[in-house]
């Protein structure tokens, strides 16, 4: 049974406002993500159905605050200390610098991340 700490997981991408470390295991992707306040995912997902992320995610907000915008028009705020499930069809606005751990089906996440790149 493998176990991972943040520093053991390879960097998937790193830019001045975001860093993701991820690894695939058992058909799922484990990602540690650090996001700066002001980051919005909508421009990255433009052109996907509903211009939104197409992968579900399960995660935990270690630090910060995120606002989730669902394609059905609903919004939800996630704060440090909260676990979450995000179905496909969402965008994220980072309201406070955030650190999170997220689990996603590897295939769906890869398709969405390839588009975002």
Runs in which pLDDT lies below 50 for 5 or more consecutive residues are: none
Determine the number of helices (DSSP H or I, runs of at least 4 residues): 2
Distance between the termini: 31 Å
Mean pLDDT: 95
Please tell me what the overall shape is: globular
SSE string, helices as H and strands as E: EEEHEEEEH
Sheet bearing the most strands, described? 7 strands, antiparallel
Query: Rg to the nearest angstrom?
Result: 13 Å
What is the count of β-strands?
A: 7
**Category from helices, strands and their pairing:** mainly beta
Written description of the protein model:
- A hairpin with a 4-residue loop joins strand 4 (57-70) and strand 5.
- The protein has 117 residues and is mainly beta.
- The model has no long low-confidence stretch (mean pLDDT 95).
- The chain has helices spanning 42-45, 106-116, and strands at residues 11-15, 18-25, 28-35, 57-70, 75-79, 83-86, 90-105.
- Strands 1, 2, 3, 4, 5, 6 and 7 form a seven-stranded antiparallel β-sheet that branches.
- It is globular and about 40 Å long.
- The chain is built from two helices and seven strands; from the N terminus they run E-E-E-H-E-E-E-E-H.
